[in-house]
Amino acid sequence: MIYLDNAATSWPKPPGVAQAMADFLEEAGGNPGRSGHRLSIEAGRIVYDARERIAELFNLSDPLRVIFTLNATHAINLALQGLLVAGDRIVTTAVEHNAVMRPLRSLEARGVEVSVMQCEPDGSLSLDQAGRSIRPGTKLVVATHANNVTGTLLPITAIAEMAHAAGASLLVDAAQTAGVFPIDIQRMGIDLLAFTGHKGLMGPPGTGGLILGERLNPAILQPLMRGGTGSRSEFELQPDDLPDKFEAGTPNSVGIAGLGASVAFVVDRGVEAIRAHEVGLTRALLRGLADLPTVRVYGPTNPMDRTAVVSFVAPGLRVSEVGLRLDEQFDVLCRVGLHCAPATHRTLGTFPEGTVRLAPGVFTEPSDIAHTLASIRAIVEES
Ligand SMILES: Cc1ncc(COP(=O)(O)O)c(C=O)c1O
Prior knowledge:
CATH superfamily of the largest domain: Type I PLP-dependent aspartate aminotransferase-like (Major domain)
Order of helices and strands: EHHEHEHEHEHEHEEHHEEHEEHEH
Bound molecules: pyridoxal-5'-phosphate
CATH class of the largest domain: Alpha Beta
């Protein structure tokens, strides 16, 4: 079986992830930060270790600014709902996932002004367009780091400079890049970074986080939920301490234990090495698909301008049929349709049918790509 759906969730997980989760349940099952006994202390240590590894990965000096959430969606909602009030102006792009667009449309209904920057047909964003939209009076700019349909990378460092010059903060949706593309939040000028644990970071589902960059004053961000934190139990008001202010309730510590192990794997292998491996696979996919004259591929032609996500359509064939035949006849697992990103498909011109999306990962081999290309050729030639 060839798994090419790593943009939805990575599989298989690295060695050591399942074991770390089993070990947590069997040997450290206490509630972190709650009780003073050894199992609680051990659980707290494991959660803190994961926080520290994530801080290091993104070049954040204070691990307490890593807020654990259930996924990127939760992190994005925390940032948007915690920062924005009626009358605020926010700027976003026309290639955002629904994890950004749906909370924004809901905030728009409550009086937040939402301005959407149009993108090019390959999913890229021109700096002229960004310069016209990001103007003084903007509170927040929200941009995906890489689009989840075409893999197109957006110019985050330049967007951060424009946002800061206009007096705005920048929230980056790194769901498609964390773990597979180098991210240095200080150098790139990112104020808030939402990541998910189960894609490029290769951890279990139910993990993710919001990183509060060092320029961001946590006092301006309201928590999404309030409740027990194990700290300052004498107060009925939510404490202001980090990360407790934003982490009410018992965390997914078993998932975080798995995430700590998967991040250790990513660091050990090296994000640059992972990126180089995925650029090679993407190049092979783009070249092979270009040899099929009827197939239309979306996104930038240079693999350096995108992550390892390649979308295509084959005229005359429904995307659902291509996906089904790849799965049933050729043992290739991918995702077809709109990928929770209708705005992107409107930009690409593939709405409402969507595309077939191939997303190789760390464990994909060049021979898997060769088999996939031969399978697509067979499907297209038979039709
Ligand atoms: C660009 C992008 N943003 C956000 C998300 C949401 O991630 P999660 O489902 O982990 O919340 C995804 C997942 O598909 C994504 O691709």
